[in-house]
Design goal:
Elements (H helix, E strand, L loop, with lengths): L16 H9 L7 H11 L4 E3 L7 H13 L12 E5 L3 H15 L8 E3 L6 H10 L2 E4 L1 H8 L7 H5 L1 E6 L7 H20 L5 E5 L6 H9 L4 E3 L9 E6 L3 E5 L5 E3 L2 H14 L4 E5 L2 H18 L1 H4 L2 E4 L5 H13 L4 E4 L14 E5 L5 H8 L9 E6 L4 H8 L2 H4 L13 H14 L2 E2 L3 H4 L3 H10 L3 E4 L2 E4 L19 E5 L5 E5 L1 H7 L5 E4 L2 E9 L4 E6 L4 E22 L2 E21 L5 E6 L5 E11 L2 H6 L4 H18 L11 E6 L9 E6 L7 H7 L1 H14 L24 H13 L4 H5 L17
Parallel strand pairs: 1-6, 1-7, 2-4, 2-5, 3-4, 5-6, 8-15, 11-13, 11-14, 12-13, 14-15, 19-23
Antiparallel strand pairs: 9-10, 16-18, 17-18, 19-20, 21-22, 22-23, 24-25, 25-26, 25-27, 27-29, 28-29
Helix pairs in contact: 1-3, 2-3, 8-17, 10-11, 17-19, 22-24, 22-25, 24-25
Keywords: ATP-binding, Helicase, Hydrolase, Nucleotide-binding
GO molecular function: 3'-5' DNA helicase activity; ATP binding; nucleic acid binding
InterPro entries: DEAD/DEAH_box_helicase_dom, Helicase_ATP-bd, Helicase_C-like, Helicase_put_actinobac, HRQ1_WHD, MZB, P-loop_NTPase
């Protein structure tokens, strides 16, 4: 990609000279045109979203009006100067932005009182922040649990609130985005009660229809600034497919070298050559593993180099995260294996290369990660190392699906009753809910409020709804959709807390016998206590990793839409999914070879969610030459491949969704394939699948048919998370089945018109919680 020629602009006259001086002190003589445009809209009182490329100066676009207002010196009615609130999806990004603001505002003296307020903030500092800070940086979780429920203590800050900055807003999608949308509505409601009406400034490097997405997130009209005027160095992007090994996996399928092993080799080679690099990997375990492999190989070359590579992921203790961030910022670390915690706008300028171990799930994330290299305007390298699965294989052989397509639309559904209900309770505890408030929270309120009253959570008194319980309403929900109390990982010999694991992932990641990696060290889980939320581990060095297996059943609760596909049907509605982790596999580290399987005894978990499903008839099976012996394998293979390809059509990750295929489902009385959202109430992914079903399933059929294997492999129909050990599977039957199904598919616009709500709007909610 050739460098773009930037266009300078002059700051609006109303921006104070002190801000211009600070900008120049930071080495920026003039702003780019998009920065000036965004500042103009903000100073005019319009909410604005800046959707320009990575390292295009979005921070300056929102800091200019913020600093200008904070430095203005005018007192608000309560005698306190103007205030601003910054929201980041991660603590690390908020801390990084705080450091940048302090550096930028240093020439201005102490007029900007900047502070980070999150779960790591010492209690002795919190009161000072509430009373005196005028630029507070936090995250949606702390806003939800800490600031809004304690709004009387924040009253002077909220009365003076002029700007709310929502950084990296493309990350607010699915269930998390839906929760954040309601948290922002609660914030707007409280500000209005205190007499404030803040302007929202949003920023994202990767967003489709940014104004629409930002409007859905905030509930406000938002002006879009998307013309990127910043200069950019050349980016060389490589697609890397690991070679086949001599090993064979499940059912004798050929096995490629793992993306983890390839990425570790690349990170090692780049570090030896002095190239500053980050290897992005999808899982916490993968980040640790790449770090360990790279350190071992670097030690063989030069022991000092091994200390310059580390892992970075969620679940570390606060002091560990801060130390790694300092080492990365200073250049002490040369290579880093990281989860998407570093995908966001943390200043890691000076990187020369990015290695991406496996497609990160969306084009938005792919470009966000690739954009971390070359942030100072120099040329850079990005390498996507394909995993052995249908989507990654499809992408390396169809690069146009990456480079010729726009990033995905942001999918979120604030009206999801599983999301909305707890926020109505939280809002009622903050201030009693009146009829005038209901428009702010959306049309689903009318149906939900009687249900919440029947559940004795809310009570109607005169003209308002009141919270009835003693416990905090904000504790009803985890806005990241993780659900439940985090599992503490404790070392048995010392009692030392190593970190935490999300409750939703505990059954599959810290079950008894699981291999757990932390800071380059390997542990074995000796026991998992679900009641006390503790996993006890001890240090060990097993030559394998572990992968959980599960079983899943599904029942249809309500069919919202049913569209004929020839004799078959494409449906969308509400389902109940019952899942149970039943065993785990031990896989050799470098090759993925299966060494054995161990049974587990864990309780089942139930999920009410949204799904898309399709059925086929006996006539269609006859035309596809599918007999009863291969029917189950054909359906199963089509299910796996369709889940693998869905991230191309919905803003989701393979692990955000699940699937079930049944030769004779008791609710449909036909062979049926289900694909469902892996979050209570749904996250919008199944609805997007329904709307794009023809294109999605056509790509699925092509991915299976074009794979070079004989009977199915991880590159086409085998799934890394299959609870049945990828048995049965029938590759050719899946291709014939999808061919016949697609012959009866209506034009896509016909399908898109069917779901309630229309394109880009939330679907009709399922029955209340």
């Amino acid at each position: 990609m050739p460098p773009r020629e930037g266009r300078h602009a002059v700051w609006p006259d109303r921006i104070r000279a002190e801000v211009v001086a600070a900008v120049r002190a930071a080495g920026i003589e003039h702003p780019w045109a998009h920065q000036a445009r965004a500042a103009e809209h903000a100073l005019d009182g319009e909410s604005v979203v800046v959707a320009t490329g990575t390292a295009s100066g979005k921070s300056l676009a929102y800091l200019a009006p913020v600093l200008s207002t904070l430095l203005d010196g005018a007192e608000t009615p309560n005698g306190r100067g103007a205030t601003a609130l910054y929201l980041a999806p991660t603590k690390a990004l908020a801390a990084d932005q705080c450091r940048s603001v302090k550096e930028l505002s240093h020439p201005l003296g102490h007029s900007v009182r900047t502070a980070v307020y999150d779960g790591d903030t010492p209690f002795e500092e919190r009161e000072w922040i509430r009373q005196y800070a005028n630029y507070v940086l936090t995250n949606p979780d702390m806003l939800h649990r800490g600031i809004l429920p304690s709004h009387p203590r924040w009253s002077s800050f909220l009365k003076s609130l002029k700007y709310v900055v929502v950084d990296e807003c493309h990350t607010y999608r699915g269930v998390f985005g839906s929760h954040v949308a309601q948290v922002l509505r609660r914030l707007r409601r409280l500000c209005a009660r205190y007499g404030a009406s803040p302007v929202f400034l949003l920023a994202s490097a990767t967003a489709a229809e940014p104004a629409v997405a930002a409007g859905r997130l905030t509930g406000l009209p938002v002006v879009e600034v998307a013309d990127d005027a910043s200069p950019r160095g050349e980016l060389v992007f490589a697609l890397w497919e690991p070679p086949l090994t001599e090993l064979h996996g499940e059912k004798g399928a050929p096995v490629r070298r793992t993306a983890t092993a390839e990425a570790a080799d690349l990170l090692t080679d780049l570090t030896v050559q002095g190239v500053r690099s980050v290897a992005f990997v999808r899982s916490r375990r993968g980040a640790e593993l790449i770090s360990v492999i790279s350190q071992e190989r670097l030690a063989e070359v030069d022991r000092s180099l091994a200390r310059r590579v580390a892992a970075y992921r969620g679940g570390y203790l606060p002091e560990e995260r801060r130390a790694l961030e300092r080492a990365l910022h200073s250049g002490e670390l040369l290579g880093l294996a990281a989860t998407n915690a570093l995908e966001l706008g943390i200043d890691i300028s000076g990187l020369d290369a990015v290695v991406i171990a496996g497609y990160p799930g969306t084009r938005a994330s792919l470009w966000q990660q690739a954009g971390r290299a070359g942030r100072s305007g120099q040329g850079a390298l990005a390498v996507l190392v394909a995993r052995d699965d249908p989507l990654d294989t499809f992408l390396v052989h169809h690069p146009e699906a990456l480079f010729d397509q726009p990033v995905e639309s942001t999918v979120l559904d604030p009206d999801n009753p599983y999301v909305l209900a707890p926020h109505l309770c939280a809002a009622a505890e903050e201030l009693p809910l009146t009829d005038e408030d209901l428009d702010l929270f959306g049309p689903a309120c009318e149906d939900l409020l009687p249900q919440l009253e029947a559940a004795k959570l809310l009570r109607r008194r005169t003209k308002a709804w009141h919270w009835t319980r003693r416990e905090r309403a904000a504790d009803l929900t985890d806005i990241r959709g993780e659900g439940g109390r985090p599992i503490q990982v404790v070392e048995t010999g010392t009692g030392r807390l190593l970190g935490t694991v999300d409750a939703g992932a505990a059954h599959s990641t810290v079950h008894e016998g699981a291999v757990h990696l932390h800071q380059g060290r390997t542990y074995l889980v000796r026991s998992l206590d679900l009641e006390d939320s503790v996993a006890l581990v001890e240090e060990a060095a097993p030559p394998y990793s572990t992968v959980a297996r599960d079983t899943t059943s599904i029942s249809v609760l309500e069919t919202d839409v049913e569209v004929p596909w020839g004799d078959g049907r494409m449906c969308y509605g509400s389902v109940e999914v019952t899942n149970q982790v039943v065993s785990f596999l031990r896989r050799r580290l470098m090759t993925g070879e299966v060494l054995g399987e161990t049974k587990l005894d864990l309780p089942p978990r139930t999920l009410r969610t949204r799904a898309v499903w399709w059925t086929v008839t006996e006539d269609q099976l006859d035309r596809a030459r599918i007999n009863p012996e291969i029917l189950g394998g054909s359906l199963h293979a089509a299910e796996h491949a369709s889940i693998g390809l869905l991230p191309l059509f919905a803003t989701c990750d393979r692990w955000d969704i699940g699937g079930v295929s049944i030769p004779l489902h008791p609710d449909t009385l036909l062979p049926t394939v289900f694909v469902y959202d892996g979050h209570p109430g749904g996250a919008g992914f199944a609805e997007r699948a329904f709307r794009t079903a023809r294109t999605w399933l056509a790509a699925t059929r092509q991915a299976i048919a074009s794979c070079e294997c004989d009977a199915g492999c991880p590159s086409c129909i085998q799934s890394p998370k299959c609870g049945n050990g990828n048995d049965p599977l029938h590759k050719r039957g899946a291709v014939r089945l999808l061919t016949v199904l697609l012959e009866g598919a209506p034009e896509e616009k016909e399908t898109q018109e069917q779901p309630p709500g229309g394109s880009g709007e939330p679907s009709e909610p399922p029955p209340g919680p």
